[in-house]
């Protein structure tokens, strides 16, 4: 196994994928390049073989239905955890983590961009402790050499990074391999992994601690996340969910040798659920920071509520500090997805009921099984309706 933090330059295809369209999560069925702006036009298997339910299916039913769903949709494996009333009540895994090797609830998955909420929470807990301010200029502690001569670097704050308003592209490879502003900071939404890496470097300089050490102290240790990491650990070896492409071909896992704040964290759904439980109870956060996390900081309602979604438009929708925030029917949902080559992940929770689902797949076709499984688990119908409206 090779360990590398390098990211694939592009995916040349997507098939029924829950994708990001300028940061919005949409379902598409096209052969196209990732940088193309997408239109949600079609999806297969929203309900597997006509399966519908208003109550959670039994474990025995899922043991029959989910393997058939995975086979039908060409998904190598799925592992998920469900939280009800602020506690993880269910954890199951189906399929293969690698050729001929069954996955389990202890198998480690690359969670891709679901790494971002963890990194964001590091900053929020540092702010709660008074070790930094979300609105202080970062240039006093960190300026990336690529933008050192651009006066706009002095405008950047941690808050802009967390709610995707730095003005950077997603990755610097999109700007000829150098970090550069594509728009002025603080002016408009622009989904950016580079922004997360930037604010993580700032946190390191401000606290004089490595970002991985900060995450371990502030997030992983308190939540009991003993097997969650940004970079390679020996305990990962032999127990990683190997990614697969749309044709089911096994791919080499991407494992970072240096931390990436926006990507490539490895963990299990139950460990991630422990992280989410800590958020549900506001652990390590002041009330003001907790309220900030649950708020829409970058409003995207006007651009997202078009077409079919306009009929069921949430009251508020956009990005908060680390999560996409959806407010509808008196509920507040926090959601994030992850998409890397041969990987798709999704997690969400509702802040009031303290209920949610964490779901990882090691397949480019992973989005095809999301809604069927959420329905089997009797996940919140308002959240399911929000996803379905984007089809």
UniProtKB/TrEMBL annotation:
Coiled-coil region: none
Domain (Beta-lactamase-related) ranges: 64-366
SUPFAM superfamilies cross-referenced by the UniProt entry: beta-lactamase/transpeptidase-like
Listed InterPro entries: Beta-lactam-related, Beta-lactam/transpept-like, Diverse_Enzym_Activities
Pfam families in alphabetical order: Beta-lactamase
Gene3D superfamilies linked to this entry: DD-peptidase/beta-lactamase superfamily
Protein name, entry field: Beta-lactamase
